[in-house]
From TrEMBL:
It comes from the Bacteria. It is a multi-pass membrane protein. Residues 1-26 form the signal peptide. Its main location: membrane. This is TonB-dependent receptor. It is found in: Cell outer membrane. GO terms for cellular component: cell outer membrane. InterPro entries: Beta-barrel_TonB (IPR000531), Beta-barrel_TonB_sf (IPR036942), Plug_dom (IPR012910), Plug_dom_sf (IPR037066), TonB-dep_rcpt-like (IPR039426), TonB_rcpt_bac (IPR010104). Belongs to the TonB-dependent receptor family. Pfam families: Plug, TonB_dep_Rec_b-barrel.
Length: 992
């Protein structure tokens, strides 16, 4: 039995108190951006959760646009592992979780992470991490991975949902501003120490989390100086267990199943090399398919969603490509340091210098037990065509929920992935007031984010041609019973060695090296001139340069001969305790797994050298891409503030102009020589914006905002890398000529501050999205793509008329897959928000309070699933109308809290409804990949033992909410179902 008790180490660590907390329980709110001469007087000490809510509410109330704010105390006392889990409590923000269940990225008002810009101390930042294959493997785009940073490093988060001429363009969803602590945020010397221990019920690990902050300030003859340093360190093992299908494929894909004995059409056809005859599917594989089961599977026609003609209909039932169980364990260390200096030589001048460092180091082990025949052709390792169907059952939706087979290749697979994200940022900023009416400010800085993956090694042991394999979803649609037909706990059931003469594989290994870097530089200056008591003009210039580079290279080979004296047991280990809390019956608790450490000690495949065949990197097959964006911008804006007709009117109106030049380069293999392929795109945008607030009697505020916005294409879509298949006459290529996604946005919101520190609001938003970027397959002549003709030459063929003639010539129409700009569509939504302290109740009860918000969003985008439909005479387009991918139509958040002078308690629930992960198009035999809706419940308790010492207990994901992907709206086949356990954090914080 697992020991789930928290060890007493937390007390020991608390006594030692080596490091400290930036949890801001004694932090002060950031000084308002008022006049420099009253900065010190406006410092407000935030001493609790309720006070942090009030401070954030005041910021929201005084803003011109639609803004939501979380103050430092709010973050520190929410049970949040990182910033994304704090942000999910903002109206309209939904959380996308990564491996291990931790928050990774956010969507805002239905728009995914690529549409949201994140700024740290005023400078845009990009932070990317790795992931398992089904969760996208690696983030190579603009989306910000919040899992890189600990929440303790920041003292405020601001989500700006409306545009403003003074705010840098690039966001269609929201601009998220993160600010680290500065010394002038505190009145005096401040020191805070904190220590916590984190325990997860699934990993059964208890590990440390420590934080520290030291800040001081001095009055000198040269003005006021301040210095601050803070740090956060945590160590954690994240465990995830569950089932994966990898993909859902039609029965006819990859050559179909082995036909029954005496079938009218024999499949596969006789093949002496493969051992295929009229009575055998392969060597020692008799044709054992049951005719009824076989026909039911191969002739199925009613098992797909969608609303248009489906070319895949009639291709048979849909089966999991690789049905498998997975255990994933990620050991990570997260380190963050901030350093800030401030100088205020006079009340009119201030200079700030901010540094930030973050390191997120991961070592992930994935282990699978799986069946791999269902996604293999006869030519590629003797797959599905050598597999016989013994039995089959379908549910009412057409989902193949039970199947039994002979001739199935079983595999145990292990993956070791080592990757580190390193983030560095340096920012200098300042302001000077020349007079009571004229002020200038400036900012210059850079951020650098590097994701380095020196090792991603996959090793597979095989057990070919197992009989009696079955899957059974009839008792549990999420976690099937997989019967592998062999003793999967015995290492000797598997083999690792060279391929047989008939193509039977006995194991493989695959390796990869990856390095992705984002460098962002910004210089900006602003002038503010107060014309009178009602009007202030603002002008500004900015210059930005973003450089993205991505390098990947791989290696791989079939199995090698075991060295003398080495057995399968010597390179294997046992998975134990699998399936706890997963559900399902008949799930194995153990299996013989690849031991990556032992395997690498025997086979040094990481040497990438000729002495280990197959370990050498395929240099000519590398991915090497670079995108450089230069953005010059200028803006003019007027702030206004009038009282008319008994109503206070304030806001701003302005326009921002931005010139963008994007230069994209990729190396492509031309006859064994890597050559650069380059594209340049230039565009100019003028982006007007209006924000208007009317302050009505009785603290009612009406807000209206309108503007034009844009979101630039993903770097991976711009890079002009190219892959040419001469035989199939197909090309996959990037598109450096993509335009940004542009939109017109409108917001209307009513806010009523009906009592002290209380607010209720209702808002409507509309985005008229003029264009969209999606992947399209279309037929075009090869010579219109701008690629070298030499890419068409292979095996000595000719493109000039000599023999042998190449199958694809320069004027040949090829099927090209690339991202293109397509028509956009509308996005509409409603947003409700409530902050209600129970101050109207009797003593004791008035310490309670409620936070609640809800968002409803709908959109309509026409996805082009295929440009040409060969089943129609006109080769018409196939399209699918759906929501934006990543858009949950409904999100709700609810927090009930209690706080008095010593005790604080909170429970929070966050809900997001099901959303579309991918639009597949009916041509794939399925319309969508859908992520099920989810509810996550967290809690937090804290008690002040003394004015300086606080003890806390937090719980995260108390319901152990699973993550599920479904495939097709009709069948709802399970593509993924995993859970990650509950987490608890106990800690001490001391401040003085």
């Amino acid at each position: 039995m697992r020991n789930t008790h928290i060890r007493p180490t937390v007390i020991q660590l608390g006594v030692i108190a080596l490091l400290a907390s930036l949890q801001a329980h004694a932090q002060e709110a950031a000084p308002p951006a008022a006049t420099p001469d009253n900065k010190d007087e406006n410092v407000v000490v935030v001493t609790g959760f309720r006070a942090s809510l009030n401070s954030a509410l005041n910021t929201k109330k005084n803003s011109d646009g639609i803004v939501d704010v979380i103050k430092a105390e709010d973050i520190a006392k929410f049970p949040d592992a990182n910033l994304a889990e704090s942000l999910q409590r903002v109206p309209g923000v939904a959380l996308a979780r990564g491996d291990g269940g931790e928050g990774k990225q956010i969507t805002v008002r239905g728009l995914n992470a690529g549409f949201t810009r994140v700024r740290i101390n005023g400078i845009e930042g990009v932070a990317a991490t790795g992931a398992s294959d089904i969760n996208g493997s690696t983030n190579r785009g603009r989306g910000f991975d919040f899992s890189v940073f600990a929440s303790e490093l920041f003292n405020s988060l601001e989500v700006r949902k409306t545009s403003e001429a003074a705010i840098e363009e690039g966001s269609l969803g929201a601009t998220v501003d993160l600010r680290t602590a500065r010394p002038f945020d505190f009145k005096d010397r401040t020191i805070s120490f904190g220590v916590q221990e984190f325990h997860n019920t699934l990993s059964d690990k208890t590990q440390p989390r420590v934080t520290a902050l030291l800040s001081d300030r001095w009055n000198t003859p040269y003005g006021k100086f301040g210095a601050l340093i803070s740090g956060a360190y945590s160590k954690r093992r994240a465990t995830e267990e569950g089932y994966e299908a990898v993909e859902l494929l039609s029965a006819s894909a990859d050559g179909g199943f082995c036909s029954p004995l005496g079938a009218a059409t024999q499949n596969p056809a006789n093949n002496a090399t493969k051992g295929v005859t009229a009575t055998n599917c392969g060597f020692n594989l008799p044709r054992t398919s049951d005719p009824t089961a076989y026909n039911n599977v191969m002739n199925r026609t009613d098992n797909y969603g969608g609303t248009v003609a489906n070319p895949a209909a009639g291709s048979g039932a849909f089966a999991p490509r690789i049905p498998r169980y997975r255990r994933s364990q990620t050991d990570y260390e997260r380190t963050g340091i901030t350093n800030s200096y401030q100088w205020r030589p006079s009340s009119d001048t201030e200079v700030n210098l901010d540094f930030m460092y973050g390191k997120f180091a991961n070592k992930r082990y994935d282990n699978y037990i799986e069946a791999i025949s269902f996604g293999r052709t006869l030519g590629a390792a003797n797959g599905k065509p050598q597999t016989s169907i013994l039995d089959a059952h379908f549910n009412d939706n057409g989902s193949w929920d039970y199947g039994k087979f002979n001739g199935v290749d079983v595999r145990t697979e292990g993956l070791l992935d080592i990757y580190t994200t390193t983030f560095r940022q340096h920012v200098i900023s300042g302001s000077h007031k020349f007079s009571d009416t004229v002020k200038v400010d400036f900012m210059a800085g850079n951020s650098n984010s590097n994701l380095n993956e020196p090792m991603r090694a996959t090793v597979q042991f095989d057990s070919p041609n197992a009989n009696g394999f079955s899957w059974d979803f009839r008792n549990n649609r999420n976690v099937p019973t997989l019967n592998f037909g062999i003793d999967i706990t015995n290492p000797n059931s598997f083999s690792f060695g060279p391929q047989d003469a008939d193509g039977t594989v006995h194991g493989q290994f695959v390796g990869r090296y990856l390095d992705t870097t984002n460098k962002l530089q910004t210089q900006a200056g602003n002038l503010s001139w107060e014309l009178n008591d009602h009007l202030t003009t603002r002008f500004g210039l900015s210059k930005r340069k973003n450089i993205w580079t991505n390098y990947e290279v791989g290696s791989g080979a079939n199995g090698l001969t075991l060295p003398a004296g080495v057995t399968m047991s010597d390179i294997s280990r046992q998975i134990t305790g699998f399936g706890s809390g997963l559900g399902g019956s008949g799930v194995p608790s153990s299996w013989a797994a690849v031991d990556l450490d032992k395997f690498l000690a025997v086979y040094n495949i990481e040497c990438h050298c000729s002495s280990v065949p197959g370990s050498e990197y395929n240099i000519l097959g590398q991915t090497n891409r670079r995108v450089e964006e230069k953005i010059n911008a200028v803006y003019g804006m007027v702030d206004f503030n009038y009282d008319l007709w008994g109503i206070g009117w304030r806001g701003n109106v302005g326009v921002r102009g931005a010139d963008t030049t994007a230069t994209s380069t990729a190396l492509i293999n031309v006859n064994g020589v890597l050559q650069p392929n380059t594209g340049v795109k230039k565009y100019r945008d003028w982006l007007p914006a209006l924000n208007l607030t009317a302050q009505l009697p009785k603290d009612v505020f009406m807000r209206f905002s309108a503007g034009k916005t844009l979101s630039r294409p993903e770097y991976t879509d711009l890079a002009p890398s190219a892959t040419v298949s001469q035989i199939s006459q197909s090309v996959s290529i990037g598109n450096p000529q993509l335009d940004p996604i542009r939109a017109k946005t409108y917001d209307l919101q009513a806010e009523w501050y009906y009592a002290k520190n209380a607010m209720v609001s209702l808002g409507y938003f509309h985005k008229d999205i003029g264009s969209f970027i999606q992947s399209v397959n279309e037929r075009v002549p090869y010579n219109t793509l701008g690629l070298p003709n030499e890419l068409l030459i292979f095996n000595g063929c000719s493109i000039t008329g000599a023999t042998p003639i190449c199958p694809t010539l320069p004027n040949t129409e090829v099927v090209v897959s690339r991202k293109v700009n397509t028509a956009g569509g509308p996005l509409n939504g409603l947003e409700f928000n409530l902050q209600m302290p129970f101050s109207f109740l009797p003593a004791g009860w008035n310490n309670f309070g409620l936070l609640a918000n809800a968002t409803h969003v709908k959109s309509k985008i026409t996805y082009i699933t295929r440009v040409d439909n060969p089943t129609t005479a006109a080769n018409e387009q196939l399209t699918q109308v759906a929501n934006f991918t990543g858009l949950s139509p409904n999100t709700h958040n609810l927090t009930l809290y209690y706080e008095d002078a010593k005790f604080s308690a909170r429970v929070s629930a966050a809900y997001r409804s099901a959303y579309i992960l991918a639009v597949l198009g009916d041509v794939n035999g399925a319309d969508y990949t859908i992520v099920d809706g989810s509810t996550n419940v967290d809690m937090s308790l804290s008690y002040n033992l003394t004015p300086n010492l606080r003890v806390s207990l937090e719980g995260q994901n108390l319901t152990d909410t699973p993550l599920r992907y479904g495939r097709d709206s009709q069948r709802n086949d399970t593509l993924l179902y995993v859970h990650s356990g509950r987490s608890f954090v106990v800690g001490l914080n001391y401040k003085f």
